[in-house]
Amino acid sequence: MATNRLKHLFFDLDDTLWDFEGNSSNVMRLLFNNYQLEYHLNTSFETFFENYKQINAGLWQQYSAKLISKDYLRNHRFELSFNTLNYSNYEMGLAFSEDYISHSPQGKLLKPNSLEILMYLKEKYALHVITNGFKEVQTIKLNNCNLTPFFDQIIISEDYQTNKPDRKLFEIAQQLTNANPEECLMIGDNFENDVLGAISAGWRAVWYTPIQHRDYQTVSDLIELKGLL
Prior knowledge:
The protein has helices at residues 20-34, 37-41, 45-64, 70-83, 90-103, 114-122, 135-144, 167-177, 191-200, 225-228; strands at residues 8-11, 126-131, 153-156, 184-188, 204-208, 218-219. Helices cover 49% and strands 11% of the residues. It has 10 helices and 6 strands; from the N terminus they run βααααααβαβαβαββα. The radius of gyration is 18 Å and the shape is elongated.
């Protein structure tokens, strides 16, 4: 990868630096037991968690397309997950959601080599975050894991009423960092949001994924960025 013009590296947060899957699973398992969901749903935690992930992903797509509100996403995702397992309890879903929102951002699991690569790259580039999510939650994650000091700009989609992959958010990032497209590189795990979104804005992108792809630059471990940058 030619890096002679690169000045600004933009990282996704969830499942790129912060281990969303691991942190979420830990909290969800605790709440699953506290709310006795094995009894209410007559199923295992693993089945519940997989159902929840599918429901949550679909709701986030709707939220990104501005089809539903933040409150609807938060207030209904667990109720809808219960419904897929033939259990209906809106009040429990709401209480479960409040507990999840309170505890989940406190998780401190990071993806492998996150701190090491940030320390390495901080000496060479201006580092920033672009993340889809809610400000109060994403800020807690960054602060609790001591990630905040690495970044010059932390760009949270909720602040700008648009989400990746909307080109507008990448253009806002350019304005905030006083950067040109050829100076910018996006690093993230989501192909549509991070890779295609960045490319649509004229940026380069690195896809953090275990899947190699002949048409896109990929890394399966963040430490591989040393060889590229």
